Amino acid sequence: QVQLVESGGGLVQAGGSLRLSCAASGRTFSRSIMGWFRQSPGKEREFVAGVNWSGTSSAYADSVKGRFTISRDSAKNAVYLQMDSLKPEDTAVYYCAANSGVYGSAAASASSYNYWGQGTQVTVSS
């Protein structure tokens, strides 16, 4: 059974940092694109960051550029999201996502991913 399990969420003050981790099991995603999405109450799920299969290229939503950094460790079958200078509007449930194929560029569309984690809550207080 394929699983993506997020961790690292929590409560942080504005301006603070958090590092989210996503550990995959059940199959390898070492040559697959992976990404992070988030969803706030009453809003649709939105793209946050994506990384290509080799970890050499990434894409970010405009709202997080310069503050968030996505990275991956293929040996550990994991992807990470370093979040700095957090703002109250970053409050959301953050989801890890992966594609079942191999290779490919960082993708911003949710339809590019077919495996999803259960999410981890990030709350930023003002």
Percent strand: over 45%
Output the number of helix runs.
0
Uncertain segments of ≥5 residues (pLDDT<50)? none
Number of strands: 11
Kindly report how far apart the N and C termini lie: 40 Å
Task: Tell me the series of helices and strands, N- to C-terminal.
Answer: EEEEEEEEEEE
Rg on CA atoms, Å = 13 Å
Q: Biggest β-sheet, characterized?
A: 7 strands, mixed
Mean pLDDT: 96
User: Helix amount, in percent?
Assistant: under 10%
The 3D shape can be described as globular
Supply the helix-strand structural class. mainly beta
How would you describe this structure to a colleague?
This protein is an all-beta fold and 126 residues long. Helix content is 0%, strand content 47%. It has strands spanning 3-7, 10-13, 18-25, 34-39, 46-51, 58-60, 68-73, 78-83, 92-98, 115-116, 120-125. The strands form two sheets. Strands 2, 4, 5, 6, 9, 10 and 11 form a seven-stranded mixed sheet that branches. The protein has a four-stranded antiparallel sheet with strand order 1-3-8-7, with no helix packed on it. The termini are far apart. The model has no long low-confidence stretch (mean pLDDT 96).
